[in-house]
Design brief:
alpha/beta, TIM Barrel, about 40% helix, binds 2-phosphoglycolic acid
Amino acid sequence: MRKKIVAGNWKMNTTLEQAIMLASEIDSKLAESKKNNDDVTVILFPPFPFIHDVADVINPDKIGVGSQNIANHPEGAFTGEVSAKMIASIQGVDDTIIGHSERRAYYGETSEILAQKIELALENNLDVVFCCGEKLEEREANKHFEVIKSQLSETILKLSAAQMQHIVIAYEPVWAIGTGKTASTEQAQEVHAFIRNLLKENFDAALADSVSILYGGSCKPSNAQALFSQPDIDGGLIGGASLKADDFIKIIEAY
Ligand code: PGA
């Protein structure tokens, strides 16, 4: 059975005080929730400098913590970078996002760079939430399947089946991120099924069935349930709505 996951990507938001408050609020609201959310894995991705403090205030049995990115080099003279080893050395921190479209678009992260990051994350025992997704013009030109296939073929589809046990895929159509424009449940399900089929072709049916594929892009309390009820959608990577404890809890409860 694959995991159901709701992850919060805080991006470059919050101060230290706000990050601690938000994490504490999510932690206590989740504990008080009347719904049984035990089968949902919740992961928070705060900004780098607050990861340790966030990991300190949450109940690690209920909430995981990870980084939004890691460097593509193991260590050394790379001023301003943060390595997989550093992230993995923080107690309670077991995950990292890699390949978010904002990293690809604003920081020139190519598939080659992303493949290096994935290797380093796995070597350091971090699980990876690997993002893929097409831009608006690619969707309009009906090239979305092609784009996603190459994003995955150049990276995670090169991994071994054992390494794939540590990968979660997030499908995030770029045109839906932070725009309020969500993919329809049909559009999302169609791409998720396509990705699962790629996994099946490259590995086998059992592996394809075991990998969680999350949807991301303007996911909010009002659309989470419809998205999560699709057969190939195993949760969400939530940006904006993860910065409000109440909305984030409602999304978790939508499962
Ligand atoms: P959004 O961001 O929920 O604010 O659209 C999602 C993401 O970028 O992961």
